[in-house]
């Protein structure tokens, strides 16, 4: 009964089984195989410590100041910030709509790379990477008394 159709019909009960199947007796393992297994070297697993990628704190050797005129200048900001360079963004030469869009991008960039974004004045922002600490009041924009053009109503 090597015909698959016949086997299916027997399984479904549509045909009678003509042949009786017997399971073949298990064959004893050959000594040659066992000898090969016994001669194999034992396997020792290697436990490697987990590698944690953390940026090494290096002294800040440069700070990039950018005066973007269009949104496409965001690429320069992103490339330098990704390399661990703090970036000062002066938005005074941009329209309010493009400036908002660029700050939204910079906020996502800093969040994605574990950095920080801080407002220095109403149109100047500082992007600092994870390994750079910025100290100060954090209230410079409020102390200047400048109107915040990016605040939501």
From TrEMBL:
| Family the UniProt entry places it in | Belongs to the SepF family.
Q: Which UniProt keywords apply?
A: Cell cycle, Cell division, Cytoplasm, Septation
Name where it's found. Answer: Cytoplasm
Q: Tell me the organism.
A: Microbacterium terrae
The UniProt entry's coiled-coil ranges are none
Classification via Gene3D superfamilies: SepF-like protein
Quaternary structure, per UniProt, is:
Homodimer. Interacts with FtsZ.
Q: For this chain's UniProt record, which GO biological process terms are given?
A: division septum assembly; FtsZ-dependent cytokinesis
Q: What GO cellular-component annotations does this UniProt entry give? A: cytoplasm
Its biological purpose is as follows: Cell division protein that is part of the divisome complex and is recruited early to the Z-ring. Probably stimulates Z-ring formation, perhaps through the cross-linking of FtsZ protofilaments. Its function overlaps with FtsA.
Kindly report the protein's main subcellular placement as a broad class.
cytoplasm
An example of a Pfam family matching this protein is SepF
This protein is called what? Cell division protein SepF
| Superkingdom | Bacteria
Under the heading InterPro entries, the entry gives: Cell_div_SepF, Cell_div_SepF/SepF-rel, SepF-like_sf
